[in-house]
Amino acid sequence: MIESWRWYGPFDKITLPEIAQTGASGIVTALHEIPYGEVWPVETIAARKRQIEEAGFDWVVVESLPIHEDVKRGAGDLDRIFANYRQSLANLAANGIHTICYNFMPLLDWTRTDLAAPVARGGTCLRFSAPRMAAFEIHMLGRTEAEADYLPEVVQQAAIWFQRATEADRETLLNSIMAGLPGAYDRYDVPALREALKTYDGIGQDDLRAHYARFLQEVVPAAEDLGMRLCVHPDDPPRDILGLPRIVSDADDIAFILGAVDSPANGLTLCSGSLGANPANDVPAIARRFADRIHFAHLRNVRKDPDGSFEEAAHLEGDTDMVDLIAALLEEEARRRQTGRADAVIPFRPDHGHDLLSDAERGTHPGYPLIGRLRGLAELRGVARALSSGALSSGALSSRATA
Ligand code: DNO
Ligand code: MN
Predict the structure, then answer these.
(1) Model confidence over 96-106: pLDDT tens digits?
(2) Which ligand neighbours the alpha carbon of 302 most closely?
(3) So what's the ipTM on this one?
(4) Is the pTM of the predicted complex or chain greater than 0.90?
C-alpha cells in the first residue's frame, strides 16, 4: 500500500517538509481554490504537482474533484458541467494523475456535532451526537419530529440540550456541522441552510440515484479512455441527513453505483470510518466484496452508541477490525500483482486523527491534525508491515511462542 497524507495545499498549516517526517510518500490534495464546476487548468495542476514533487512526494490521488450541486439536483447547465468535468480529468491525466476521489453527498460533506470531544486519556476527537443533531434539526432548523426521525429518547435529550444551550453553544453546534465543507465555499447560517435545503425539495433517493447514474454515464467512459480511476467516497454519516437523501451508504448502494457503469474506471474509496458508522455495515466484508474496484482507502475507526451517536476512535480501536480490513486490502493487492494489474498498489491515508499534545494550538483543519494523524499512520503502517512480512501466516510467531 502507498502511505499517503492529505495536504490542503499552500494554505495548509502543515507544510510539505513536515509531512515528509511522517514517512508518507504520497500526497492527496486538490485545487481547493477552483470553484465547483469549473475546469482545472493544465498549468495550475502542473504547478501544484511540481511543488509536491520538489518536496519529495508523488501526487497520488486527487481528493476531491468536486461535483457541482446542479448535478445532484439534476438541474441547470449540466452539459457544460459534464464537459468541464471531463476536461479537468483530461488535464489531470495529461499531468500523469490518474486516481480521482469525489463524493455524492448533497450540500454537506462529512458531518459532526462536536469537533473537540474529550478522549479518555487526553486529546480530543470528532463526534456525532444524535441528540445534538436532533436539537439542530428540530429546534434550530424547525423540522418536525416526524421529519427528523430520531429515537424518542434522542428527541427528549435534544429538547433538554436545547433548553440549556446558550447562544454560543448553538453557534458552536452550527459551526461544527458546517466544518466538513472543504475550502472556503458555501458555509451556511441557519436561514441560508434552510434556503439551500429547499433546493432539494422533492428529490428522493431514486431521483438522486438517477442523477448520479447520469453523471457516471457522462464521465466514466472519458475516464476509462484516459486510463483513470474515479473512486466515490461514501456518505458520512452513512444515512439521510437533514432530510437530504444519501445514496452511498451501504453495500447495496455501492453495488448500484458500480453496476450503473460497469467499468474499472468507476470505483470506490473505501472509507472505513464513514462506512463503519452504520452498525449494519461490515466494513471488511464490504472491502472484500468490492475489492477489485477499490482505488483508494481512508483508514480510521469509529465507536458507535446505540442511539445513533458515534465518535472517531483511535485508528486501531473502535468497532471495525482494522487488522482484518488491512488484510483484505493486502489480499487484493496480491491478487492484482498475480494478474499483472498496473494499479496493484492501493494508496491509503490515515483519514482524520485525534487532536493530541500540541495539535489544538496549531489550528489545523478539523480532523486533520499533525500529531494525531502521525500516530494513526504509524499504527496502520505497523499493521500492514506485520501482515505483509509473512511472519503471521508462516506460523513463525506461534512456533516461537511454543519453543
Ligand atoms: C473527510 C473526508 C471527506 C472526503 C470527501 C471526498 O475527512 O474523508 O471530506 O474528502 O467526501 O469527496
Ligand atoms: Mn474518508
Answers:
(1) 999 999 999 99
(2) 2
(3) 0.96
(4) yes
